[in-house]
Amino acid sequence: MKWLSSRLDFGLLLVLLLSCFAALPLILHPQGLPNGADVLYHTYRAALMDRSWALSDLFPRWADVLYYGYGAPLWHFYAPLSYYLTSLLSGLFAVDALGALRILIIICNLSAGVGMYDFSKRLSGRLGGVLAALAYLFAPYILFTLPYARGAYPELLALALFPWVMWRFTLLQTTRSRRDTALAALCLFLVIMAHNLMAVVLTLFLLAYILWHMVTAQIVTPRKQWRIAIYPYTLSVLAVALAVGLSAYFWLPVLLEAGTVHLQNLTAVDQLNYQNFFVWGDVLFGLVPLQDAGAINALRPVTVLGLPQWVLALSGFVGSIVVIVRVWRAGERPILTLSQSLFFGFCALICMVLVLPLSASIWQGLTPLQYLQFPWRLLGPAAFSLAVLVGMNAHWLQKVARPNWQMGLAAAATALILLLAAPLFTVLQWRYETLNTSVGAYLDSEQDGVQLGTTFTDEYRPADVSTLPGPQPALIDDYRDGYPVDRAHAPDGVDIFARDSGPTSNVWDTRADEAFTLEVYTFYWPGWVASVDGGQVPITPSPNHGFITFEVPAGQHTVSVNLTATMPRLFGNLISILTIIAFFACLRFLPAGVPVDRVPQVTQRQAFGVLIGGAVALVGVLLFMPEPSVLWLNTEPGRAPARTEVRYTFSDEEGELARVTGYDLGRTTFAPGDTVRLAVYWQGRRDDIAINYSSFVHIGEPEVPPLAQVDKLHPGGYAMSEWWSPEEYIYDEYEIKLPADMPAGDYTVFVGLYTCALAPAGDCGNGYRPQVTDTEGQSVGDTLPLTTISVR
């Protein structure tokens, strides 16, 4: 038993046990996934990758099914690691794409918790590791927004792997070993392959971490020992270089061939303008919002830091500094603890500032930053930094508090983290309990307008495709039947027979009395080559549609098209191959290093305190779960949890269409240039609405053009025609920027609906607007004067 006790990591066991709370959404819903913003995209992508593996294409670049079967280089540009994992999980556990993504969420939860524990225990002991792991895993952005509200599994995977990167690089600075050099490089390689944008952010975070510690090490190192002191940081830079080199086969072609698709769409779409996705301070530092089953669009991103995360991070930072000052006066020099506290404090502050609207000028000036699209993406790195600082509480607990106080405070911190995250344990709108992900079903979804190319911004459409052609029924039927798929389109009088086909190749036998142009229903993209009887012939993309076309001479011939490697791809592959050689050379020639000191176990009182906190949280969740007014809401039909209740009805020619039941407006007095934050609560009046309506908010005076306005394609971002329901309300939030030169005065806030579907063809103008009536049935026109504000 003593041997077992010395080998077991009780802190790690506590993290694994308490991480079960993070699995509650999946436990409460035994199958499928919710209606997160990107869930459908990633589910189809996972199924497409699994199909590529079934066709023995393990590292695909081209996804032939996209865009009605015309294809697109999805895998060339989008980091593929999460889809490799889902394909592997599908094979291991015999599950479909939905099931594989569910398992991936669990793996990410475990990875985030265990990785953060192993990293933080090196900085603040095993108790600090437990607290940091809980703070990170139950940060609202990690726990809820990424896996459920957004369904952004690649980004979740990158953030779940990042603690392992920091752990291995921290160990490398101590051990200076070839083993840790290799493991650090591999961990960073996985992060790079997990998510394009987050890989850049997290790699910069890591480089800043290495540089920070290199500089602080030099400050306290005698000049004669600088060469020895700088050696571990040289190994860290080597590990970063190895990771970048190993992943060169992916990122180098992305950079060099970015112009071959429409990547500029990532920042060109108004709906993804970074200016619309800042987080206001009262939201960022506030409590987790209660989930409301009475809302149609209740599944929204939660963009709060988490109250226990930032409060405990603040206490960890301040407490660490106090302890450092105290022991410094006693003769100790805890440089590492001071360095870590300051670094992660600065990182947390920088991330929080960049999330707030006050950083708009920084985003405007740094164009590359705009590719993040959502400033609140930085909540991930912020959650990491805050979690490390939460772990720093262990320093002052162990230095200042008595053992019994340590137990009580550990219990309080654990319970606080878990209980204040409890409203996120239930996830609403579990829409995709089952999903047909076959090729035919996917192509049906494209034809039905549900999605196109598994993207929202159409960024992976080849550059030569300026006008997207419509679907070809014969081609789609071919895809439904499976290979072979005949993509050829030849003039009348040409005999053509499909000999062979695959995702990136086609072979035909042709016979014609005169030369002709063969059109292939595949979008041209650099790397496609055409051959006639084994000799390469030039390809000319068809006008507008960008199909592969090439000339075939008269007579009988064997013609083919194949996707080959371009110079950037070959160069990237070569760098990766050379890096693999260098990787094993490092394992052979680098020194074995020095052993790392063992971190003491958590004490019995500390472990008991964490367990008590977990038990209190469990009792609280079980006690309040049946009562919707405490942790969850279920607003009754016809009502909405608005600060100000009103009742105005919008009617079209078929009767009552929708109703505004309330609104939230924090204040009514503003200065020119301020932002008016308004939330409108809509209630459907019938569920047979046949057309889509857009919504607007105008600020100004009656009968004159508005001075400020915001329009939305659909109210709340979700309320397409089939979503309106008398049973649930729609939460519709607006941020209206007032002009900097807006004259002082009182102005009306107008709200309305409009559609071009009922306007004359080609002459939408202001669109068709439903009529508005008040509670007494009196008409107020086609625009609702909701409230007034003052500009001073």
From TrEMBL:
InterPro entries: Membrane_prot_PTPS-rel_domain. Residues 76-364 form the Membrane protein 6-pyruvoyl-tetrahydropterin synthase-related domain. It comes from the Bacteria. The keyword Transmembrane helix applies. The chain crosses the membrane at residues 83-107, 127-146, 183-210, 230-252, 310-329, 341-366, 378-397, 409-430, 570-587, 607-625. Keywords: Membrane, Transmembrane, Transmembrane helix. The keyword Cell inner membrane does not apply. This is Membrane protein 6-pyruvoyl-tetrahydropterin synthase-related domain-containing protein. It comes from Phototrophicus methaneseepsis.
